[in-house]
Specification:
alpha+beta; Herpes Virus-1; 23 strands; globular; 5-stranded mixed sheet; Rossmann fold; binds glycyl-adenosine-5'-phosphate
């Protein structure tokens, strides 16, 4: 995995209509992207897979579509107005803006890389007899470097906890950290920067009219907890799921659609009885990794990163990381958020947000286990893992997108062998049979081999060829994207055969 792969993914995504830079004719807008004709399909299919798994397959989870704008008190209650900040610093010579915490983390990363180099060297020298844990705990140079890292972490953590931004700047200066682009050490002071986008409501100007674009979809679920529970007669444990846009004014938004200022989340809050949250947290960690693994992108492409430092409202948290072209990075979070959010909304709204348990006759504020995945990150994970260049037996190469078939933007391509002899008409008939259930593309241009390559490049799992025999034996040839094998299938079997290969149900059979 490399930067090179990321570049290939970006250019492939643009060339074939998956993702375009936003407002490109005006030279684009940083960290904003538009999903093209195939990207919109892939995105919808990912949403459909998530919604099916969460809402349809759980009779105690229901959906919601809350508004992006919410009463500003929501964000006071949730803590976003006071604490949803990143510490930023500017370089006075280059005028470039950085996250102070990222500069420090990158500095630590460099020291870690040196330790890794020492470990690799020792491994080479000692071979099978090498004991890495012992080496790390006894080698003088490694111990020195580890101590440097620990000292930096202690200073940084205590500065952030005390909200002492002068101490953060002092740390950057003491570590002699330079602008990664220019090498300049001419820094401004560190300031807190709130990540929420502000706008004004109607004609009201000034602070009283300020509202925010939601930085997460979760709060729309919390404020509707009782509406849904009562109107849907939901019994705890139950969940509310939502897919929608979120906005964060990220200081540095890089790496294509990995970190954007406008993105989409798929979140689910699962309301449980206090005391049972640990078992539900374990349940959702397992359920979510199963959902990912069913796609077949490779189990080694995922890993859990359990948080050691927890946010003040959480009693457990873990990220599902994916091996993106830039390395393992967060794709999804599973968080045990206690009763923090509902308590906060009770306090700020003066409305009770309690569940009355008809069996025990007691009333309580439920605990919440949340699963939160970025749709755009899931899109990037799917696309980057799928893009492959293969050398075939005859020495030629093909670019193929091995997107899991149920997520593929186009499921079936219908290809009449020739543009005459009644073949296009037959092909259109077959298309009409399939297009109510699947996204189907018709292509009659160029030689059949070139048409196969075009479909490989956009990840179409099945190509159906209509030839002269079709008119006699009422059968077609289906060519499989991955194996490139071909089989003859009777037209009256097509609906079932195609569904058996590309429907979303296949993903649930696999898990
Ligand atoms: N409600 C919990 C929450 O919002 P988060 O870890 O801040 O938690 C959840 O975000 C997920 O949203 C992340 O795991 C990531 O996939 C996605 N996400 C967060 N910031 C993003 C950004 N700037 N661009 C794209 N996706 C983002």
């Amino acid at each position: 995995m490399s930067d090179d792969l990321l570049k290939k993914v970006i250019s492939h995504a643009k060339e074939y209509g998956f993702v375009f830079p936003s407002s490109e004719i005006y030279d684009g807008l940083s960290a904003a992207y538009d999903y093209g004709q195939l990207g919109a399909e892939l995105k919808n299919n990912i949403k459909h897979y998530w919604w099916t798994a969460m809402v349809r397959m759980h009779d105690n989870i229901v959906g919601l579509d809350a508004s992006i704008f919410m009463h500003p008190k929501t964000w006071k209650a949730s803590g976003h107005i006071d604490a949803f900040n990143d510490p930023l610093i500017d370089n006075k010579d280059s005028n470039k803006r950085y996250r102070a915490d990222v500069l420090i983390e990158d500095h630590i990363g460099k020291i870690e890389a040196k330790i890794q180099k020492d470990v690799a060297k020792a491994l080479k020298r000692f071979g099978d007899a090498f004991d890495e844990a012992e080496f790390r705990s006894t080698n003088g140079r490694v111990l020195d470097r580890q101590k440097q890292i620990d000292d930096i972490n202690v200073r940084f953590k205590s500065a952030m906890e005390a909200e002492d931004l002068v101490a953060v700047k002092q740390l950057i200066e003491d570590l002699d950290i330079a602008d990664p682009d220019t090498g300049s050490r001419n820094w401004t002071d560190v300031r807190q920067f709130n990540l929420m986008f502000k706008t004004e409501l109607g004609a009201v100007s000034g602070e009283s009219g300020v509202i925010y674009l939601r930085p997460e979809t979760a709060q729309g679920i919390f404020v509707n907890f009782l509406n849904v529970q009562k109107s849907g007669r939901m019994k705890i444990p139950f969940g509310i799921a939502q897919i929608g846009k979120a906005f964060r004014n990220e200081i540095i938004a890089r790496q294509f659609i990995f970190r954007m200022r406008e993105f989409e989340q798929m979140e689910m809050q699962f309301f449980v009885k206090p005391g049972t949250q640990a078992e539900w947290y374990a349940y959702w960690k397992e359920a979510r990794i199963k959902w990912h693994n069913a796609l077949g992108l490779g189990e080694d492409m995922y890993r859990f990163h359990d948080h050691i430092k927890l946010a003040h409202y959480a009693d457990a948290a873990s990220d599902i990381e994916f091996n993106f072209p830039m390395g393992f990075k967060e794709l999804e979070g599973v968080h045990s958020r206690t009763d923090f959010d509902l308590n906060q909304h009770e306090a700020h709204s003066n409305k009770k947000l309690r569940y009355f348990d008809p069996e025990t006759q007691e009333s309580y504020v439920p605990y919440v286990v949340e699963t939160s995945i970025g749709l755009d990150r899931m899109f990037l994970a799917t696309l980057s893992a799928a893009l492959q260049e293969e050398t075939l037996e005859d020495g030629s190469t093909r670019t193929v997108l091995r997107i899991p078939a149920p997520l593929a933007p186009v499921k079936v391509a219908i290809l009449p062998l020739l543009k005459k002899d009644g073949l296009p008409e037959k092909a259109r008939e077959i298309m009409a049979m399939l297009q109510m259930d699947h996204n189907v593309q018709y292509d009659e241009k160029d030689a059949i081999g070139r048409r196969y390559r075009r479909q490989d490049a956009i990840g179409t799992p099945l190509c159906i060829t209509v030839d002269h025999d079709t008119l006699i034996d009422h059968a077609v040839t289906i060519r499989d994207r991955d194996t490139m094998t071909q089989e003859r299938v009777a037209i009256d079997q097509l609906v079932a055969v195609v569904a058996g290969k590309v429907s979303i149900a296949q993903l649930f059979k696999a898990s």
